[in-house]
Amino acid sequence: MVEAILFAAATPVSVRELADRLPHGCDPAEAIRGLRSLYQGRGVTLERIGDGYAFRTAADLGFLMQTETVEQRKLSRAAIETLAIIAYHQPVTRTEIEEIRGVAVSRGTLDQLIELEWVRMGRRRMTPGRPATFVVTETFLDHFGLESARDLPGLSELRAAGLLESRPPTETGIPMAEPDDEDEGDPGIPAEDLFEDE
């Protein structure tokens, strides 16, 4: 029954959701352990994604999926920086994102990340004004093949992969980003303007 539910599910299913759908007395956690063992080393594996579980094609067989057409759209620099700050500093408020980036965050940037379902609003801070916080979603974790945000690569791994430049520190020791056009523009910019053409 657990296998059937997970196979038909469009999104990862948590143990609690499985328990709610199974007859009384069933142990979905035990069934998941058995299924993960059963599918280990096969073409399809049972992966943990956030608090849920889902069937995914084995990583070493990804080349077989190349016949599928995937439309890739590049996020703007502002959106990438905002997403990275949320992923590494979550839960984080809009003000904190702006302090880290050194420029104001366009409303459209956050709206687009929320629309992509990579970012969602978290709990409000128990501080004056009760500001909202932002966190990454299970859709984000699923897209990048992560079990949790703790699995994000560290600074040394990013440098080793050539994704970070080794620049000398500034005089203050804090690199400040220059304002980009998308951050200073009209907050009501269309969502498609947040993407750059390849």
Q: Which labels suit this protein?
A:
9 helices, 3-stranded antiparallel β-sheet, disordered C terminus, alpha+beta
Structure description:
The chain is α+β, with helices and mostly antiparallel strands and 198 residues long. Helix content is 36%, strand content 14%. The protein is built from 9 helices and 8 strands. The strands form 3 sheets. Strands 1-3-2 form a 3-stranded antiparallel beta sheet. A 3-stranded antiparallel beta sheet has the order 5-7-6. The protein has a two-stranded antiparallel ribbon with strand order 4-8. The termini are far apart. The relative contact order is 0.13.
Q: Uncertain spans, ≥5 residues at pLDDT below 50?
A: 168-198
Reading side by side through the largest sheet, how are the strands ordered? 1-3-2
**Distance, first to last CA:** 45 Å
**Range of strand content:** 5-15%
Helix content class: 25-40%
Structural class: alpha+beta
Taking Cα atoms only, what radius of gyration do you get, to the nearest Å? 20 Å
Q: Sheet with the most strands?
A: 3 strands, antiparallel
Number of alpha- plus pi-helical segments:
9
Instruction: Please state the average pLDDT score.
Output: 79
Name the shape in a single word.
Answer: globular
Element pattern in H and E: HEHHEEEHEHHEEHHHE
